[in-house]
Every structure is written in C-alpha cells, then in structure tokens.
Amino acid sequence: PLDLNDEDMYTRPDLIRLHYGDLLGAYYEKSLASGDGTLVVVRYDPNTGLWESTWTSLDGANADDRPVSLVALPSGRVVMFWVDASGSQVNATSSDDNGATWTNYANSILNDSAQPISGMAVSYSAGVVLMLTQPGGSRRAENGTVDKPRPRLHL
Predict the structure, then answer these.
(1) Which range has highest mean pLDDT (95-104, 115-124, 133-142)?
(2) What is the sign of the dihedral through the CA atoms of 19, 98, 108 and 87?
(3) Beta strands in the chain, from DSSP E residues, in sequence order
(4) Residues 6+ apart with CB under 8 A from 59
(5) 30 backbone dihedrals φ, ψ, rounded to 5°
(6) From 64's CA, which of 11, 28, 136, 140 has a CA 20 to 30 Å away?
(7) What local confidence, expressed as pLDDT, does residue 137 receive?
C-alpha cells in the first residue's frame, strides 16, 4: 500500500491503466501542518503488487482540492492535466516513459477561465482528447434560486 498518513490530506485522485498493464495514479497531497500542496504520481505494478511514487512536484499552498486527470494515448504517451494555483486554468504535462519522467506539454489551455474549476475529466476518443470541466461554486439569484454552473466540454 501507499504510505499515507494522518498528517496529510489527499484529494481528487485519478487512475488509468497503462498499455502494458501497470496502473498510474495522480492526486494532490496537502500537509495539514504546513499547508503546502504536492501533486503526486504513483504507479502500481500488478506483477509485484507494489505501489511506487514516480513523480512529485511541490505546488505550493492552496493545492488542497484541485482536480487532476490522466489520459493514455494510443502512442503510449500519458498526458496529465491539472488545475493550476489560480483554480481557473488547466495545465498539462506528458510522459513517454510510463510516468517515470514528465515534460511540460501545455499551459493555460482553456480559452475562457473566468470561473474556478471544481471538477475535471479527460478522455481520448477517435483522435481527440476531450475534457469536461465543472465550474465551481454557485450563485444565488435575487429571487432566491440557486444558479449552479453546468459542466463544459472542451476539445
């Protein structure tokens, strides 16, 4: 099992199966003591039954509840998308060696980033990477009704 402890908070995990059978996961880990957040990538080897941390990135404070999503492309490349510290923009990094090393792929990939993003899912289909984002928060109209933002599809 992963070495998880009570002093940290873990949020919004994503998990994919790599082409050769290992599992790759990503999640945010936040120290409750310091408030610093880290984006963590882990790999599970079904042959050994062991998890290993493959990559961590100190992402600074306020990384406690941001979405992260992984997608495996037919070429074997893995792309990881995550919401940045502003909470309203998405960045991406890619790996061509099953998560062992990562390279910057794209920054600020959404055209409109006015609302915070509270959820995200990414998938690959027919040569296109599709991203669905859920705007965060809700607004109360003057008549007392609650306006909840709808998910948005990005191609």
Answers:
(1) 95-104
(2) positive
(3) 8-17, 23-31, 36-45, 50-61, 68-72, 78-83, 90-95, 103-106, 117-125, 128-135, 139-140, 146-147, 152-154
(4) 28, 37, 38, 39, 85
(5) -125, 130
(6) 140
(7) 59
